[in-house]
Every structure is written in C-alpha cells, then in structure tokens.
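A common beginner's mistake is to predict each chain separately and then try to dock the pieces by hand. The better habit, illustrated here, is to supply every component at once so that their relative placement is modeled jointly.
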Amino acid sequence: MTSEGLKPRWLRLRARFVIFVLSGVALVATAMAVVSHQEASQALLDSSQEHLLALANSQASELARRLEKVSAPARDLAVTLEVVGVASETMANQLISQSLVANPRVYGMALALAPYSFSPDQRAFSSYAFRSPQGLKIMDLNSPVYDYPSQNWYLVPALLGRPVWSEPYYDEGAGNILMTTYSAPMVKDGKVLGVITADVDLGNLGREVHSLTVTQGGYAFLITRQGNFLASPKDELVMRQSIFSLAEELNRPGLRQLGRRMVRGASGVIRLNDPLTKKDVWLAYAPVKGVGWSFGVVAPEEAVLAPVADLTRHQLYFALSGLTIMGIVVLLMVVGLTKPVKMLTSGAKRLASGDLLTRVTGIRPGDEVGELAHTFNTMATDLHAHVEELKRKKQQLEDSLHRIVLLENIETTLSKFVPASVKARIDEAPEAPDLNKRETDVSVLFLDVAGYTKMSEQVTGEDMNFLIERYFSSFLDDIYQNHGDINETAGDGLMIIFQDDDPVQHAVNAVNTALAVGRKVAKVNQELAGRFQPVSINIGVNSGTALVGSSRFEGLAGTRWTFTASGSVTNNAARIGALATEGRIYIGPETAKRVGDRFDLESIGPQRLKNVAEAIEVFQVLGAKEA
Amino acid sequence: MRLLGKLKYASAMLVVCALLLAPATAGALTKVSLQLQWVHQAQFAGFYLAQDLGLYRQAGLEVEIRPGGPGIDPLSELATLRCDFAMSWLSEALVMRSKGVDLVNLAQLIQRSALMLVVFNDRGISQIKDLDGRKVGLWRRQFAVPPRALFAKLGIRVDEVSQNVSMAPFLQRAVEAATAMFYNEYHQLYQAGVDRDEITVFDFAEHGLNFPEDGVYTMEDTWRERRQVCQAFVQASLEGWRRAFIDQERALASVMKRVNEANLASNLAHQRWMLKSMQQLYTHRVGTALMGQLSPYDLRQVNRVLVEQGFIPEPIEAKDFVAEAWRQP
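With all components supplied together, the output reads:
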C-alpha cells in the first residue's frame, strides 16, 4: 500500500551500510589527514628551509675563509711595504713571487706603485707574478695599452684608500684569464703609495663553488656586489650576465628585488622559478663576509619537499591501510547484522508459502536481532496453533452441517409420521414446543378393517402385510388432503384426528375422508378381485371437545411420547365405529349436526354405547348431497 | 622522357651555378672597410643588418666591418688609409681635421648627445655646481670636452679622475660622479642593481652642449674620387638602420651573433636597450627620412666649444667638411 508511492532503494542493505560507514570514516580520516599533513608539511618545509639557509650560511663562511687565504698575503705584504718601502725591482719581484709560491690559492700577485712614486722620472713601476701554463712568470705590467693606473684593480683601491675585491674581468695583457682581484693599497701618511694585488682564478673559484656540498640536483652560485656572476652552473653567465640583466631579459622584477637584497648582504630563503633550469626551486642566500659577495644555494623544490613527499606517502599509506581494515571490520559487522536478517527474510518467505512448521535457527539470542528471531519463531508457533485450531473448528462445523443435513433428512422422513397438529405446534416454537394437552374442538375418525381376524387366518403373514399397506396406502393421501392426523395404527385400524379453527370444517373434512376411504377401498377391492377376498372398511366419526396433546408413558425401555386426543369424543367415535358393519359410515350426533346440510344422513336411532350412560343418536352417511 | 628529365636537371643545375657564381664572376663588388669606434654592440646594429640582409651586396659593395676597442683610434686608422670609412664623434673629427687630416663627414648619425654625468642621490649633489672639488670620473680625449666646457662655464673645478671603460669606480663610490653614455653605461648601472630613482643624471644636451656623436667619415680624396661608392655605402647603411628600427629583434640577432662570436661580455637585454636608445638618438629632430644630416647649428656650436677649449685654433668650415653622402642623388 505505502510502498506504491516510495521509490525502491538502489542498493542492498549490505552495500548501503558499507558505503555510508566507509565514506563517513574516509571523510573524517581525510579531513584529519589533510590538517595533519598541512601542519606537518609546513613544519618540515620550515625545517627544510632553515636547513637550506644554514647550508648557505656555512658555505658562504667557508668561502670567506678560503678567500681570506687569498687576501691575507696581499694585505700583509702591503702593510710590510708601507713600512719598509720598495727599494728595487728585484726586491719587488722577489717579494711577490715568494708570497705567490707560499699561497697556492692565489693565481697571481702584483705590486704596482703609484705613478712617479718610485722615481720622479718613471711614471709606472710594477711587478706581476702569476702561474702561467709554463710555470711561474714574472712581468712588468706597464705598457701603453695596459696602463695599470687606469685599471680598476689599481684605480678603485687607490681612490678609496682601502682594500677592494674587483668585479670579474678578463685580464688581457697580463694574467690572460678570467679573474677577480683583491687589491690592498699601501697608504702612508694618507697618501696611496701603490697597491698589492692577489688574483683568484675564476675557473678555480667556479670549481670550488661547484664542489661545495649542495642538495641533490641543486647547485651553488656566487655573485658580486654588482650582481655579476662569479660562479654559476652555466659558465656563459660569468662576465656576461648579472642577476639584474637576467631579471631584465626575463622581465622578472621579483628576480631583480632578490638580486638587490643579495648584493646588499642580506640572507634569506625564497621560492622561485629558476631562470636557468626553468624549474621551481628554493634559493637560500647569504653574504660572503669580508668580500661583499653573495652566495646562493639552489635546491630543487622536489628535494626541499622530499621529506614532505615522504610524509605524504606515509600518511597516505596509513590512511589507506586504516581504511581497508575499517572496511573489513564494517563488512564483517554488516554481514553479522544482515545474515540473521536474511535468515529471517527467508524464514518469513517459507512461512508465507505455508510452511508453518518452519523455524529460524542459528541466530544468537541476546540482541535485538536475536529477539526478533525469537519473536518470529513464537509467532510461527502461535500461527501454527491458531491454524490447527481453525482446522479443528472447521471440521466441527462441517460435522455440524452434516448432522444438520441428516437431521433435515430425518425431519423430512419423520414428519410423515408426525401428526400435522404436532408439527404445527413445533413450528410455532421449535425450541420448546408446547405439547401439553389442551382442550380443543376436534373430529375423530376411527377406521376398522372388517374381518381382519378371520382374514389373517386365511392368508399368510406376508400377504397380510401387503394387503394392509396396499389399502392403507391408497387412502393415506385422502387423509392428508383433508388435514387429518393419523394418530394410532392398531393392527387393522386407524385413528385419525381432524382439527380446524372452523368447527364445521374439520367435521366436514372427517366425513369427506370417510367417503374417500370408502371409494378407495372399493377400487382396491376391484383391482385385487380374484386374488383376495374383498375387504370392507367400517368407519365411525364423532366431533366435540377433547384433550389434545402429548401423553407420556414411562417404561422399562425408556420414555415414549404419544400424541393423541383423549376424552369421551374419542371413546364415542371408537364405539360408533364399532357399530358400523359392511363398510358403513356412522357419525355421532354432534358431527351430524355440523355436516347435516352437506351430506345425506340417515339416523339409525339412539344407540346404547359401552360405558356411556345415555343412548346417543347415530347417523349413517349415505353420501355427499348433490350441489 | 628520361633524356628530357636529365636535360631539365642539368639546366636547373646550370642556373643554380650561375646564380652562385654571379657575384664573384661579375667582379662588380667593391671591397670597402668600416672601422667602428668600439667593440661589437647595438651601437652599430644598422651596419650589421645592412650586411646580413645583403643591402651592401645589392649596392655592389663588399663591406668589412672592423670592430674597435681599447687602443684603436678609428680616425687614425682612416688617416693612415687602413680603412675606407671610419666612425667618429663630430668633435673628434673636427680636431683631426684641424690637425691637417683631410677627412669629411659623409653622414651624421647620432643627432643628439648621449653623454651624461651620473651621481648617486645620496651624495648631496643636486646640481652640477655641487661637483665642485669632488672626484669626477672622466673619459679621455673628446669625451672630456663637453664636461670640461660645462665646468668652465659654471666656473667650478672638479677633481678629474681618469675613467676607464667600466663603471666600477663609480659603483664602489671611488668617484662622486662619472661620465656615462645613455645607451651604454647608464643601463649598465641598472644591470648592476642600481634603480633609476637612486641616481641623478646630468644630460649635456640639456645644458646647451649637444655634441652630435657617431658619424661616418672618409678621406676627402676618397669622397672626390669614389663618390658613388661613398654614397652607396652610406645609403645602404642608413637603409640598414631603418630596417633595424623596424625589426629590432632581427637587428638584435645580428648584434648578438657578433657579440657571441667575439666572446664579448654583454647580454641581450643590454643590447636591446642600446638599440632602442639608438633609435631615439638617430631620429632626434630629423626623423628617419633625413637620417645622416649634420645640423649646421650643431656644427657651429661644437666648433665654438672646441675653439674655446683650445682643441682647435679656428672653426672648421662646413663646405670643406660636410660631404652629405646620405642624400639621395
């Protein structure tokens, strides 16, 4: 009824359970995993960044320490010569070559005096020692083309009066390599006497920077105060590009800002797209103290994020295994829940198909499902009992109905033997028929087969019965048609009671019956003529008030009820009948009085009747009056 | 059929050979050489493009473009006939002419002076007068003429420091001010991480000292005897410049090709800036149509300053000096 309007479920209970519970669990687990992953990865990322920055700082310090080994000899020599002065070219050559030999990191060293400071007639005085492919070489830097006083390595420290690291340059005409030069001025009394320089081979510097330990897949680089690359993974950047020219070429203002922070000596970590590799990288930068350069360490993002990736992998692994276990647990639980339900369902189906003896077994008691199974079984038991009861009742009903049919049959048969007046009384009140005697106006007819005794001696018993039945049967219908009740059969006679609300009518009925019986007897006599002696029936009729009802006779074999009309009317009728002979019909005075206008009567005079004090007038019926 | 195919093939080959051999066999190409003032850079982009696009070849010329550098003086090269054409500033050419080298100006290319003085904003120098007594980096020879003229006009004396090709002394604050070319050093400062708003620029052109710079020069004799060659060269060069301004990336490719071949310390961004600057300097006042014209006013002014500064005893007359090879015949 209600299911008509409801959409059917898509999924079975089991699938629904698993999906709902699992998705719920997965949702919660995912949310927790995301939060924890974000926090953890941020922490890891922070530590990765710190690590990278620490690396940049330590390596920048290491680089500063190594460069100090280049600058220190030049500075020391400058301080020495400030005091002792330069006496000769030989001395100058000796000093710088000794210092160069003692300091393997230095590619070349120069001693260059301020113009005209060595002697008023000699503008330039210089000595340069360097490691040529052919070994240590000493030369004079002075030439019209080179003009060292205008070279930056000389000019800038001379102007500033303090040591300076130069930008990278190709020292054409002297060292003939890409280099950067540390220049320490010799200052005496505020006057610059000259400079002592120490060169760093950028090829070596580049190799040293490359050899520094950096993150897998990463690299290190070095830029000057002007952002020029001293060392980089791409050699062609050195001398050609600065971090600023790269930013301009790639139109990346962010890179320029980074460069400005770096050349100002700041340190930090930044995430950016590497202009060289075009990959997302993390860059940590730190100043190379004492030199004014900036050192950068670049690590590919995947390397920086590697711990985060590991974490993600682990968390994912745990989440998936947890979810799988959870799934199994849920599945087991659901199976545990739905299995009894399935059993109950199939039990109900069996029950529905009529198997009332079916029971659901194997469901453990103690929980709701157990209760349900118990209830189901109880219900089946009850149902079975009810159905059995119903069957029994039905059988009883059928038996009752059968008996009723039998009774009806009995009634139909028996009613033939029950006087109509009794039937009427029973019909009036079937449950408690009033069969008590009542004073009723009746006509009583006695009928007697004349010569019965003599005849019974002449014919066999069998023939006797045939004859009785043949004659009696012939006029039974006439009796019923005239509403007569056969009250007594006594061998060769019948007593018939006629009742009617009209006192004349039952008297008429009685007389009509008598006449009919006479005609029937004549007819049967004629049929049986030749085979048996003819029979005559004598009839007496009397009318008046009699006690009509049941009389009870108690006997040894039980109680027997008879229904009769008793009183003088009956007695007189019998006596009147006894008077008749040769098939005559005699009626009493009362009857005669009632039917006299319908039948031809002939008085036979007053007659003395046995046990009757007065003589009464008896009439013979001759026949019905002609209409 | 087969024979026909072969014939066709052979004739096609002949045509190709003819085309390939045509310039050589024709012998019509005149070999000339151009001496640049400096190493390869976008300052000379138009010449490279004229060569790479075959404009010189079309004009019947085979041009050798010689880069300059420290120690190479283009006008000396010209005077000694080691080249046919030379690039030079107008002022330097006038000085040479007054020294008796009979050179002529075939075309004035840079119309506006790109020379400037730069100072850091944080040094308390808001006008040129403030440089009085301070260290100022100056290039030698004619590069020093406009500054000296200006300082003299303003009545200040600066501590002149001989400036080399790099801006390192300025960047390291070894000098208070430095001379710079708008198209070169000014941008080098930017590429050294100096923002534009960190420096102040004193532009000589804006201080009444507009010295026209790059021009093409040849010897008077050459102009007289090989006028058509001179005209062909100058006009093809100017066409190269016009093309360079239209298709700057193509021109930059020609520049960078030479920069890389010479293994020079420069980068594309810088050359791009230089080429854009060249467009402004070349077309200043004259547009692209009159590129090459030497303004008589500028000539007079440069003459005057040179005389004042004692570089030349008397002004150089335009009729002897200006050849106008740039004009279409």
